[in-house]
Design a protein that fits this description.
heterodimer; A: about 15% helix; globular; B: 8 strands
Chain lengths: ~80, ~190
């Protein structure tokens, strides 16, 4: 099992219940869309979130899958401003 | 201790300024020049416009804060990484592209050098500080994707830079390597 953290729209929220740590990245993105739509993430509800909202997001897995953390986050390609 | 800041634009310039209290030699590496638009989001002052960023920040650290630093106004690549990073005790990645980040990771891993990365999302609302052993660089969604323009994300950029500076301070004090994510919700260690 693992804790899922989702960052969207500038907000970073932990899903209060554990999820299967062995889920594939594709499934995590799909589940995240449903969680944000349904309001199960405290402070982060968007009822009409599009199906592909997390299509370009990165899935980071920290710690052992058995009891780790999974972060679904935007890409961070930048360090400076040109 | 010698800390090498690779890239002193938005994140690197603010982070280097926030590290001026450390008992360390700060080395600044950046080939770019200060443009007037940079004054809104980076730690440069108006008289620095037109100067190389590394040289300008070195001057500002000395003239305004009495801190001596080293400046190299060159593009860091595989051909000069050993010269610029060989005597570093800590490497700080504030670059803005995957290729340059990869050069740093390759050098640091080969030489066993500590390396910490800071990175910002395109919309300027999410960033992370992550040590190299847990870092994979992200590519742009589209080639040539615009970075944060102007000064609209300045408060967030300084928050992320301060988080990076704090990670550097912790490392200097006791060798700890803490990761963090930064969002509009705040800063969380990971």
């Amino acid at each position: 099992m693992a804790i899922l953290n989702i960052t969207y729209n500038g907000l970073s929220v932990d899903y209060p219940r554990e999820i299967d740590g062995n889920l594939r990245d594709h499934d995590i993105r799909r589940i995240a869309v449903e969680l944000v739509r349904s309001g199960e993430l405290p402070g982060l509800q968007i009822a009409n979130l599009s199906d592909d909202a997390f299509a370009y997001y990165v899935v980071d897995r920290m710690g052992p899958h058995a009891k780790g953390r999974i972060y679904l986050r935007p890409k961070v390609p930048f360090g400076t401003e040109g | 201790m010698r800390i090498v800041f690779c890239g002193v634009g938005a994140l690197g310039s603010h982070a280097a300024m926030a590290c001026r209290n450390l008992e360390a030699t700060l080395r600044l590496v950046d080939f770019d020049r200060v443009e007037s638009k940079n004054l809104l989001a980076q730690a440069f002052v108006k008289p620095s416009v037109g100067k190389n960023k590394a040289a300008a920040l070195k001057l500002q650290l000395h003239n305004f804060h009495g801190v001596r630093a080293e400046a190299f106004g060159v593009r860091l690549g595989a051909n000069n990484a050993a010269q610029l990073l060989g005597d570093a005790d800590l490497i700080v990645d504030c670059f803005d592209n995957l290729a340059s980040r990869a050069v740093l990771s390759e050098f640091a891993r080969a030489q066993g050098k500590p390396l910490v990365h800071a990175a910002l999302a395109a919309d300027g609302r999410f960033g992370l500080v992550r040590w190299d052993e847990r870092f994979s660089p992200d590519a742009e969604d589209e080639a040539g994707q615009a970075t944060c323009e102007g000064g609209e994300h300045l408060p967030f950029i300084t928050l992320l830079s301060a988080t990076l500076a704090r990670a550097i301070e912790d490392f200097c004090r006791d060798g700890s390597r803490r990761d963090a994510i930064v969002s509009l919700s705040g800063v969380a260690t990971t």
